[in-house]
């Protein structure tokens, strides 16, 4: 380690060329240095390694045993260093063998991950994708630690420390089973409030949400009889009962067991976006993944 601290890249490059040429003059020409400069480098190298490295010979210089031992490891180390500092090569998804991680709720899974999946498998067949639970309060820390490549979350209240790219704006609609007697026509506000509602509470157990805020603004309230943490259960509940729900329009679009009508009041929607940290911002593979997801929604 002490020897390593005394070395610099220029000394190692000089040694590599000297071991190839066995001649100070030719080495100087290849390195684009003066002969005295190369001689100074050689003197420093001899001192660091405690070995003459190159000895005078009848036709130039001949390497010592120590120099022969250094030749291959030094060449391999310099080639590895050159690869490490080389400019990033263009990303080819067809040849990629990466494992990506996307942090999302079941809503993000259904509306963003699922539409992108087919194209991802077709264009990057050697890659793998892991979807992990979204923890909004830990997004910045997880991004810094590389625990996800992308997080799918709403832009409102998002941490400013992360890069973000908006994907779409979502609105709420009223959904229930096909043939629901209360959804033959868009309900009035009074009819809407009389229906039995199910809602998603990400924190668990909540019976108040964005819709209730909008109702309270006009002096009304609804009857929420079921609260669940995930959208998947809501879809099954709606299809098999007379409960209704205010749901994001993309989630129920084209669902064969549900019918959708406009609610009798304006409920604020939200903007959905992808988020990522600085550590992967310029990575060609990461850029490709971001573009692919953005083009799929």
From TrEMBL:
Keywords: DNA-binding, Transcription, Transcription regulation. GO terms for molecular function: DNA binding; DNA-binding transcription factor activity. It comes from the Bacteria. It holds the Pfam family HTH_1. Residues 7-64 form the HTH lysR-type domain. PROSITE patterns: HTH_LYSR. InterPro entries: LysR-type_TF, LysR_HTH_N, LysR_subst-bd, WH-like_DNA-bd_sf, WH_DNA-bd_sf. Belongs to the LysR transcriptional regulatory family. This is LysR family transcriptional regulator.
């Amino acid at each position: 380690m002490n020897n390593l601290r005394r070395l610099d890249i220029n000394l190692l490059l000089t040694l590599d060329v000297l071991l190839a040429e066995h001649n100070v003059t030719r080495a100087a020409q290849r390195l684009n240095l003066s002969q005295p400069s190369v001689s100074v480098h050689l003197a420093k190298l001899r001192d660091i390694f405690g070995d003459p490295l190159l000895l005078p010979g009848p036709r130039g210089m001949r390497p010592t045993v120590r120099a022969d031992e250094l030749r291959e490891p030094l060449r391999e180390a310099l080639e590895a260093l050159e690869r490490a500092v080389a400019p990033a090569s263009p990303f080819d998804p067809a040849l990629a063998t990466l494992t990506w991680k996307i942090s999302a709720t079941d809503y993000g899974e259904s509306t963003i991950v699922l539409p992108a999946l087919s194209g991802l498998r077709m264009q990057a067949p050697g890659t793998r994708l892991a979807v992990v639970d979204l923890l909004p309060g830990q997004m910045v820390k997880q991004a810094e630690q590389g625990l996800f490549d992308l997080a799918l979350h709403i832009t409102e209240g998002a941490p400013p420390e992360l890069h973000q790219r908006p994907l779409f704006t979502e609105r709420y609609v009223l959904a229930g089973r096909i043939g629901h007697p209360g959804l033959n026509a868009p309900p009035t506000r009074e009819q809407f409030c009389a229906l039995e509602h199910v809602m998603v509470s990400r924190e668990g157990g909540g019976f108040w949400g964005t819709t209730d805020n909008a109702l309270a603004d006009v002096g009304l309230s609804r009857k929420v009889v079921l609260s669940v943490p995930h959208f998947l259960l809501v879809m099954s509940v709606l299809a098999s009962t007379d409960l209704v729900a205010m749901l994001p329009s993309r989630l129920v679009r084209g669902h064969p067991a549900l019918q959708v009508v406009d609610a009798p009041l304006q409920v604020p929607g939200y903007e959905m976006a992808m988020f990522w940290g600085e550590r992967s911002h310029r990575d060609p593979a990461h850029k490709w993944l971001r573009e692919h997801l953005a083009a799929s929604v």
